[in-house]
Design brief:
mainly alpha; single chain; 3 helices
């Protein structure tokens, strides 16, 4: 009985793999990923990490500055 299940399972797996390999590749309809400007990211990090932002702790001037920067 176990051999029968093993044979059926092997046949199903083989057919499934064959079907996947035999089907034509799907065309992607997803939009291409946007490019990331590393210099722009570095510029934002430098601004947010500057001493002017005082660590950005809640309830401080640094938090108000960082919230204003991000919403801009």
């Amino acid at each position: 009985m176990a051999r029968t299940f093993l044979r059926i399972g092997s046949i199903c797996l083989s057919l499934g793999l064959f079907a996947c390999a035999a089907s034509p590749p799907q065309k992607s309809t997803a939009a291409p990923a946007p490019t990331i400007d590393g210099n722009a990211v570095l510029g934002h990090v430098k601004v947010m990490a500057s001493d002017e932002y005082e660590g950005r702790a809640p309830g401080t001037k640094g938090e108000d500055l960082s919230v204003a920067y991000v919403t801009e």
